[in-house]
Structure prediction request, 278 residues.
Amino acid sequence: MRLDEAEARARLAAHDHGVLCTVHPERGVDAVPVVFAIHPDGFVGVPVDLVKPKASLQLQRERNLAADPRATLLVDHWNRDDWSQLWWVRAKLEWCPDDPRRADELADLLVARYPQYADRPFANMLVMRIVGITAWSAR
Amino acid sequence: MRLDEAEARARLAAHDHGVLCTVHPERGVDAVPVVFAIHPDGFVGVPVDLVKPKASLQLQRERNLAADPRATLLVDHWNRDDWSQLWWVRAKLEWCPDDPRRADELADLLVARYPQYADRPFANMLVMRIVGITAWSAR
Prediction:
């Protein structure tokens, strides 16, 4: 049921989208679907991009992280018919706002991963360090 | 980009799984994949079931809600290749711990929705009221 850390990290790195949760001072939790890349040093990059339309590029998730640097990234595998296939990985993250070198390396990884990012349409990059990981599998 | 509330509620009710986020006093956010049912009165039922294996039936999500009744349920539609298809709905929830009639009605809805629940294998039912809803679509 519990997956070990190496397996959890491998599944997280291979998954192509997840849910990023941050803490909002009044609302409690904000959660939003994201794409991401994992840096071999144990960092996660979540782009603020110009591909998916947004009302503003100064996103609430960044304001939340400035007030509270803790975040959670969850990836899960769903199968409506066969629940023995279910699994999920949850990474506890800490925002690292001043790491331009890693932000650039994570941008490269995102370009390699998603063809939509071929032209590097990044307005910003959230760099977060993995500080803990938990994973569950139905079998 | 923003979807109106009626459309948001329709998509939420039709989706078959989501991510439930609660506030942990020290860790910040806890997030876990869940199945759910929507009551016509605007309540969400998330079962604690005996189908998916668990280390304990006294789940952290319930302890979190007892300390802070705010929760968030996010459903999202992902398409790796065509990002014009993306959408998500986020419901802000408030835990209603003492509503056995609604818990029972939500159990019926879950049985109707998921064949895995035909034998009503519910150890508990989290009943939460929808207090706000936000939704986004790429087009």
